[in-house]
Amino acid sequence: MTATNDTERDVQESGLSRSQLVYNTLKGLIREGTLKPGQRIREAEIAERLRVSRTPVREAMHRLITEGLLGINPIRGFAVAELDKQQVLELYALREFLEGAAARLASQHASKLELDALRDILAESRRIADDDAERHAALNKHFHARIGEAAHNRYLQRALLLLFDSLALVPGTTFQVKGRAKLVYKEHLAIVEAMERRNADEAEEMAREHIRRAGEVRLRLLFGMY
C-alpha cells in the first residue's frame, strides 16, 4: 500500500476538503510573511507542492481574492496583494476603531488571568533587545490578539482576525524605527493599567492613540511624509 501524502492525511484526519486545506496553507504562508506582497503564486507549483490537483488550488486562490489577500491580472496571474497608500490609511482607520473597542470591552470583561497574561507579555518584551524588530513585532501581534480574546466578543474577534490578515500585506514593521520598542512598551503598559482599573473610556482612548501613532509611523516608513 502506498503511503498517503501529508495533504491526504490532513484531509482524512480533519474532514476538511482539499480546497479548505490549500486555503488554510496559503493563508498561513501570507500571515507569517513567507509569501510576500507582490509575490507571484502559480497554481501548478502549489498543486505540486501540496500534491493535490489544480482544481482545489484554484478554488482556494479565488477565495483569497474575495478576501483581498490575492490579486490577479491577465499578464502576471495570481499574486499576493499589494496595498497602496489609501488602502493602508483605511486599514489603520479601521484598526484604530476595532482595537479601541477591544480594549474597552476587555477592561469590562477580562479575567485576572487574562490581565496577568498581558503583564507577562509586557515583561517578556523588556527582555528582548530593542533592535530585535522581528521578535518585538511577533510579540506585539500576540499582545493585541490577547486583548481581542479578553474582550469576550466573538464577532469583534472575528473582525480582528480578518483585519490582522490584511495587516500581513503591509510590509515591514514599525519596530524598525529606533526607539520604537521602548515607546510601544509604554503605550502597551498604559493600556493594560487602564484595563486593570476597569476604566473603559481610558483603555479605549489609550488603544486608539497607540494605533493612531503606529499608523503614522508605518505610513512614513512606506511612503515618506504624508
Question: What's the structural blueprint in terms of helices and strands?
Answer:
Layout: H1 6-14, H2 18-31, H3 43-50, H4 54-66, E1 70-73, E2 77-80, H5 85-109, H6 112-126, H7 133-150, H8 154-167, H9 180-196, H10 200-223
Antiparallel strand pairs: 1-2
Overview of the structural elements:
The chain has 226 residues and is mainly α. It contains ten helices and two strands, in the order H-H-H-H-E-E-H-H-H-H-H-H. A two-stranded antiparallel sheet has the order 1-2. Strand 1 and strand 2 form a beta hairpin. Helix 5 runs antiparallel to helix 10 and helix 6 packs antiparallel against helix 7. It is globular, with a radius of gyration of 20 Å. 30% of the residues are buried. About 2% of the residues have low confidence.
Please give the alpha-carbon distance between the first and last residues.
62 Å
Strand fraction equals under 5%
Q: Characterize the overall form.
A: globular
- The number of helical elements comes to 10
Helix content: 55-70%
Largest sheet: 2 strands, antiparallel
Structural class: mainly alpha
Uncertain runs: 11-15
Query: Helices and strands, in N-to-C order?
Result: HHHHEEHHHHHH
Return the average pLDDT rounded to an integer: 91
